[in-house]
Give the backbone structure.
Amino acid sequence: MRRSDRLFQLIQILRRARRPVIARSLAEELEVSTRTVYRDIADLMAQRVPIRGEAGTGYVLDRQYDMPPLMLTAEELEAAVLGAQWVAQRSDAVLSRAANDLIAKIAAAVPDHLRPFIADPTIGAVAPLTASADTLDMSQLREWIRNGRKLRIRYRDEAERMSERTIWPILIGYADAARLLAAWCELRQAFRHFRTDRIVSIHFLDERHGERRLLLVARWKRYMKESRGVDLSG
């Protein structure tokens, strides 16, 4: 790894960390010696990168620090291409266009030597053999999630039973062939998951549910961990 790439990666590790990172952990991830980490940290501090800490206690990066956009490694570019391909093949028309536009913008902004990683990537997403069709406006659904508004839905479960519910939408989960809407269900007074292709009808209500989105998402994550053993805190 070139030294410039290593310094960039060092900053990235500190950016994603939620607590101080000791030099030994940094050295293991970067596959260098702790002595090299100490030297790199000192060099970054000399360049006015706001890193705090010292040997033995760990290092943290100021949350307000931001690097110039699109300083990406080859692996990060391929990850972006793979993710955008997956979204383009499995989401609604609005998100699909956005995914393709994203890649075009990245390709126009990165240096020439990185463009082959976008134009001719070594990895690719395979289109699903089957995909369920949505009967609702997914773009408006995302807007209602962001604005904390309620939905009134008529839903058909896997046993073909129909029910009507008022729900508080939390997020949309994308799988290979289907999409799941996670929500708080007023009827059941519990979190529930609804396949979007089984929502027979939907009414976008103006009424807000009144709970802060971050708190609602945190409650849902706790439910997923406690009831299903799925840890979504990462």
Notes: The first strand starts at residue 51 and ends at 54. The longest helix spans residues 74-90. Strands lie at 51-54, 58-61, 149-156, 162-174, 179-185, 190-195, 199-208.
